[in-house]
Automatic annotation (TrEMBL):
Domain of life, source organism: Bacteria
Protein's UniProt name: ATP-grasp domain-containing protein
Residues of the ATP-grasp domain: 16-136
Phosphoprotein recorded as keyword: no
Organism: Geobacillus subterraneus
Alphabetic keyword roster: ATP-binding, Ligase, Nucleotide-binding
Keyword Ligase: yes
Entry-linked SUPFAM superfamilies: Glutathione synthetase ATP-binding domain-like (SSF56059)
Alphabetized InterPro entries for the sequence: ATP-dep_AA_Ligase, ATP-grasp, LAL_C2
Length: 236
């Protein structure tokens, strides 16, 4: 083998290697006005495993201790200061492991997956209303006006063509259900769950405790049948 051919087969390509951080994932919902960061809520997450880590549920407030809550918010404040964030909402994802709080990423916007709705239900803080009023220079009150809980759970479905949905109206009548929405239409082919765009639909529920909100959302999501190719995907 000549040297030129050997070199072609031993090219070194640049790559990025990151440490995998174990532990529990949360997101931190904050509002910043005049450089001062206020914690609105910490959101608890339910994700699938490797390799895709798709978020299949959220709950507010997260079940963390006072010490953990303080440590998480301290890290987020330091991050927002470091990036020069002085106005508006932020949605920061963190992991809490045995080694402490680890920042995963941050976006200077409200969270997705109906998280602002969960925050509003649980605390009375409407992130979008606060954003507009603050931008107009009006005084805003970031103090929570209620102490409840809210959760969202996504609906599971088998692979195949959606023929119909069953149970939606009965789910809407269940106690504590605030919103039910299908993200896919009849006739859509459902493939293997590999990204958040593959999720079929969701249910939002409220409760006096986070456990109650989660239980209601999970029970409701299981009652929605996604009928695939004349075979019912019945959740029990």
């Amino acid at each position: 083998m000549d040297n030129q051919h050997a070199c072609r087969n031993n090219i070194l390509f640049p790559c990025l290697v990151e440490e995998y951080i174990d532990g529990v994932e949360f997101s931190v919902e904050t509002m910043t006005i005049d450089g001062r960061h206020t914690l609105l809520a910490i959101t608890e997450k339910l994700t699938t495993g490797a390799p895709h880590f798709i978020e299949m549920g959220h709950a507010v407030p997260a079940r963390v201790s006072h010490e953990e809550k303080t440590a998480i918010f301290d890290e987020v404040q330091e991050l927002l200061d470091a990036v020069g964030h002085t106005f508006g909402p932020a949605h920061t994802e963190v992991k809490l492991s045995s080694k402490g709080v680890h920042i995963i990423e941050t976006q200077t916007r409200p969270g997705g997956d109906r998280i602002p709705m969960l925050v509003d239900i649980a605390t009375g803080c409407n992130i979008y209303k606060i954003m507009v009023e603050a931008a107009l220079g009006r005084p805003v009150d970031l103090t929570a006006t209620r102490s409840k809980a809210a959760a969202i759970r996504y609906v599971n479905a088998n692979i195949g063509m959606i023929e119909r949905f069953e149970g939606i109206e009965s789910v809407k009548a269940m106690a504590g259900i605030r919103e039910v929405r299908m993200l896919k239409e009849v006739g859509t082919y459902i493939s293997e769950l590999s990204s958040s765009l593959d999720r079929v639909g969701y249910v939002v529920a409220e409760g006096d405790t986070v456990e109650e909100a989660i239980n209601r959302a999970e029970a409701a999501s299981r009652r929605i049948n996604v009928v695939i190719n004349n075979v019912e995907n019945h959740h029990v």
